[in-house]
Amino acid sequence: MDPALTLKLVNPDDPPAPMGLDADAEVAALALRQRAARGMVMKAVTFVGGQVEDGLKLIPKGMRDQIEAAARAALLQSYRLAEASRGDGMLARRVRTDRAHRVVAAISGALGGVGGLPTALAELPVATTVIFRAVQGVAAAHGEDPASEETRLEVLRVFGAGGPGSKDDGIDTTFIGARLSLSGVALNRLIGQIAPRFGLVISQKLAAQAVPILGAAAGAGANYAFMRYYTEMAHVHFGLRRMMRLHGEDAVLDRFHKVLAAGKVPVRRA
């Protein structure tokens, strides 16, 4: 290898900046934000908890594979359609903030719950696309191009953050710094990994919406809660990526995991 190239690899042109007090505090805040997200969303789910329990009884036992297939289809459709929804139309101009997306998600959930399980399943792709679009907005706020294929793949990763009731809630930082292969094979593999986890979330959502009419109120609450959870996880995910671009992967993730460990928060790391 050329000695000059070796020297450049050891001493890159733009080495990561050391973690100062401000950066340290910002990464710690991201860890605390992840910890708080589950608490906030669980309060909302507890509010409609009785409705969820009743709804679970109405979902046939053999529907697990169907729900996972629905999760896979909804994620793929969202990946393909969400960017188009970020155009310059009236709806796109008005629905840009986290709060606006939560309101749209709640309305969608209410409509999906009017007819029970059939309309809830029909509403699923809409809710997923609204969440996907909101997460794209978070990515843009952290300096990433929401239209790029790489960013949209990262958005899919956020859907793998579990959800209310999961035992391993939170951002999986194992591969957060890795570049994703931009290919159809990579997309299908990623969705295949995420769909089972997202399917568990969908089961709770469908349960909340399973009772006709009454499911409208529960569906609105569940959608609002899930939207809030995933946008919070998106701020953690893309916030970490932004900090890693500035200070390097090892320093940022070491600090992040230390804060989580101090609070005994579940951590998924290789």
Description:
The chain is an all-alpha fold and 270 residues long. It has one domain. Helix content is 71%, strand content 0%. It has helices at 3-10, 21-47, 49-58, 64-81, 90-94, 98-113, 117-141, 149-158, 184-209, 214-247, 249-262. Helix 3 (49-58) crosses helix 9 and helix 6 (98-113) packs antiparallel against helix 7. It is globular and about 60 Å long. It starts with a helix and ends in an 8-residue tail after the last helix. Mean pLDDT is 76; it is low at 5-9.
Task: Summarize the model shown.
By secondary structure, the protein is mainly α.
List the helices and strands and how they pair.
Layout: H1 3-10, H2 21-47, H3 49-58, H4 64-81, H5 90-94, H6 98-113, H7 117-141, H8 149-158, H9 184-209, H10 214-247, H11 249-262
Helix pairs in contact: 2-10, 2-11, 3-9, 4-7, 4-9, 6-7, 6-10, 7-8, 7-9, 7-10, 9-10, 10-11
